[in-house]
Amino acid sequence: MSMRNIVAIDLGASSGRVMLAQWTSANQRITLREVCRFANQRVRRTGYDCWDLDSLEQAIRAGLAQLDDEGIVPDSIGIDTWGVDLVLLDANGDRVGETVSYRDSRTDGVMAQAINELGKAAIYQRTGIQFLPFNTLYQLRALHQQQPGWQAQVKHALMIPDYLHYRLTGNMNWEYTNATTTQLLNIDTGEWDRELLAWAGIDADWFGKPTAPGNTVGNWVNASGKKIPVVAVATHDTASAVLATPLMQDDAAYLSSGTWSLMGIESLQPCVNRTSLDANITNEGGAEGYRVLKNIMGLWLLQRVCSELHISDLCALIDEAKNESACRALINPNHTRFINPASMVQEIQDACAEQHMPIPQSPAELARTIFDSLALLYRQVIGELGNLRGTAIRQLHVVGGGSQNPLLNQLCADACEMPVLAGPIEASTLGNVGCQLMALGELRDVAELRRCIDKNFPLETFAPQNASIFAAHQARFAALSQPAKELAYDKAD
Predict the structure, then answer these.
(1) Which residues on adjacent β-strands are paired with residue 345?
(2) How far, in Å, CA of 332 to CA of 347, rounded?
(3) How far apart are CA 366 and CA 303, in angstroms?
(4) What's the start-to-end Cα distance of the chain, in Å?
(5) Tens of pLDDT, residues 364-411
(6) What are the φ/ψ torsions at residue 210 (nearest 5 degrees)?
(7) 406, 391, 417, 403: which is closest to 474 by C-alpha?
(8) Does the structure show a pLDDT above 90 at 485?
(9) What pLDDT does residue 13 have?
(10) What is the rounded radius of gyration, in angstroms, for the C-alpha atoms of the chain?
(11) Is 237 an active-site residue?
């Protein structure tokens, strides 16, 4: 029997955690403990919305130091974060400029340039990645056009988890699952696409060879002088979350629900064709094969509403929203207007007014508008995924923090007309841990990890109850979600 202490560092767009997983091989038991939690707030610097990497690193090191103080020696450490954003380094390994957030407006209009000059179908054929205005491809073009002083100093470019690997170990790495989010990796070769980098005006030598998840980047040395392996897990948090989703049926889809909602299916082969392009479906790398999915704006809308209205009791708000009339007001959550508005409350109200819908006023009305709209968008995307694979999807697994929302889970089951299995909540952390356990030889493969998670973390099932309500409003919602209003829309398309 072996026992392992595994540290999973999970960073989201609004908060981060250092988590300790304890593994017992005899009964394949996993327990989780939150060592520390910390805020991840964007900051305004030199005119840009940026990430405070120094604060994040300090919080991570504090969590690791706490474990050292407790006498716990980890067997390994893994880090997962959101995708798309880059850290620029000079020849000495020091940061260049700011780490600008994907929610910053500097990329406005850049996707239009790419589509005009390269062609939408050509870009998609090369990468298989959906068109989002903040993809790394457009961030780098914006860098080239707007910050030539920064660009002149750059020697290396790392995704955020790989930058944190570098800070802990001194070694550079380019992990595959996060690299695929950039729209810069060639889907046929698995290498950085030099033609796209050239269009962006970027030196391809900034990037090293992408590596599969599970490799050891190097060692972190704790205060006691012990070397702890740092494993490059599936570093994109969605890749880790999907890894931990107990998908047991071929006709099942997943929904990683949090700040973003990522809905998709697993496939050993990418889906790159006219149907997937028209639906703006992406093919991101997974621990095994591809995550064929679509980005949905998700609970970012609710998070912003709660922040603006100073609402801290989310459970009470959900209970109040449950009593509101269904589908009274609807919005298209994937409209670009909701990426980072000055006021989310006002933006939602304006969107309803423009469509001559009742304007949600109370927090419960605003929340219900968000939940109903998300459920209808989930219904639409489930249909697109079923059309893409050629067979209907009959079961949906909802994982992540959003799986704790019973109202949204039930609305999702009603709208999609299928059972929803909710959990595990800590999916990205468990996928992070699972990748480390596979790297340590404790688990054979993803299938064994999923059986283990299914045994340790029971799921809650939501059966459809009021499907007719959402079916009646499907056409009304479809009118809001035409391509001209979607995240992928650009005037050049």
Answers:
(1) none
(2) 11
(3) 12
(4) 59
(5) 999 999 999 999 999 999 999 999 999 999 999 999 999 999 999 999
(6) -65, 140
(7) 417
(8) no
(9) 85
(10) 22
(11) yes
CA angle 21, 34, 398 (to 5 degrees): 80
Bridging pattern class, strands 76-80 and 227-232: parallel
> What backbone phi and psi angles, to 5 degrees, belong to 357?
-105, 160
Residue among 10, 104, 237, 414 flagged as catalytic: 237
Is residue 131 a contact partner of residue 120, using CB atoms and an 8 Å limit? yes
| Identity of residue 363 | P
d(CA 91, CA 139): 21
With contact defined as beta carbons under 8 Å apart, do 124 and 277 qualify?
Answer: yes
Q: What is the 3-state secondary structure (H, E, C) of the chain?
A: CCEEEEEEEEECCCEEEEEEEEEECCCCEEEEEEEEEEECCCEEECCEEECCHHHHHHHHHHHHHHHHHCCCCCCEEEEEECCCCEEEECCCCCECCCCECCCCHHHCCHHHHHHHHHCHHHHHHHHCCCCCCCCHHHHHHHHHHHCHHHHCCCCEEEEHHHHHHHHHHCCCCCEHHHHHHHCCECCCCCCECHHHHHHHCCCHHHCCCCECCCEEEEEEECCCCCEEEEEECCCEHHHHHHHCCCCCCCCEEEEEECCCEEEEEEECCCCCCHHHHHCCCEEEECCCCEEEEEEECCCHHHHHHHHHCCCCCHHHHHHHHHCCCCCCCCCCCCCHHHCCCCCHHHHHHHHHHHCCCCCCCCHHHHHHHHHHHHHHHHHHHHHHHHHHHCCCCCEEEEECHHHHCHHHHHHHHHHHCCCEEECCCCHHHHHHHHHHHHHCCCCCCHHHHHHHHHHHCCCEEECCCCHHHHHHHHHHHHHHCCHHHCCCCCCCC
Q: Which amino acid is at 100?
A: V
Give the pair of three-digit tokens for residue 162: 């790989």
The set of long-range contacts for 54-60, using a CB threshold of 8 Å and a minimum separation of 24, is: 56/11, 56/16, 56/164, 57/164, 57/167, 59/16, 59/18, 60/9, 60/16, 60/18, 60/164
Backbone φ, ψ for residue 441 (5° rounding): 85, 10
pLDDT in tens, 80-105: 999 999 999 999 999 999 999 999 99
State the angle between helix axes of 363-389 and 344-354 in degrees (0 to 180), rounded to the nearest 10. 70
> Residue type for 300, please?
W
pTM of the model: 0.93
Residue 485 corresponds to which amino acid? K
**Backbone dihedral angles phi then psi of residue 138, each to the nearest 5 degrees:** -80, -30
Asked whether the beta carbons of 490 and 119 are under 8 A apart, the reply is no
pLDDT (0 to 100) of residue 488: 58
* Predicted local confidence at residue 487, as pLDDT: 60
